[in-house]
Each structure stands twice: as C-alpha cells, then as structure tokens.
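[job 4471] stage=fold_predict status=RUNNING
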Amino acid sequence: MQKTMSCGVLLFAMPLLAHHSFEAEYDFNKQIKLTGTVTKMEWMNPHAHFYVDSKDESGAVTHWNFELGAIPVLLKQGWRKDSLKVGDQVSVEGFLAKDGTKGMANARRVLLPDGRRVFGGSSADTNANQ
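[job 4471] inference complete, writing structure tokens
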C-alpha cells in the first residue's frame, strides 16, 4: 500500500513540477528588445514557445527561445498555433532569464515589420496585450 500511495503522489506532482511562475525564471528588471526570424513554434502545455534567430551588430546569430503564457490564456488573447510561421520577421519585447541563460527570454509583445502587434503573450501577466 505504501509503494502504491507513493507512486500516486509522485505522478500527481510531476505536472506541477513542470509548471513554474514567471518570477521563478525571468526578471522584470532585465528587459530585452530584438528583431529576428521565427525558426520554430511549439504549441504545448504548460507554456507555448517560439524560437527566433537574431543577429547582433557584428553579424553573430543568437538562437532565442521565447516562452509565452499558458495555452488557454493565449487562445483568449487571439493566439493560434499558426499565428507565427517559420520565416516571419518579428520584433520581440520581453524579459531575460533570471539565471543569465543566453538565448532564453519570456515574450511580452511581438510585432510584425509593418508595426502591427501580432499579440501579447507573456506568462508574466494576463494583460499582455497592452
């Protein structure tokens, strides 16, 4: 009985361990703004991600992994899994990883080259469309 109960508790806790709060991984004081090309979109729980290749002034490319909010929140804000497509040029505003991991950030705003906002989608808050 003890083994069965322990396994059940462990299985129940695993999804909770995968989910995290914004403050656990990202820093409101470390803002970033960059432009680049979308290379991939992942639409899965607990948070969606999209990937952007961005060149710095010297031409060096950084591969960025941008985390978004939870799927149900993104859907309410107008996101769809095909909202960003590979090859789209975007400007992204967000917050860097707290631990300094290069190429990791949480996206707050995504803009197209003509200035249209694609959507907001940060896991920092539920009012990301501002």
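[job 4471] summary: The mean pLDDT is 79.
[job 4471] exit 0
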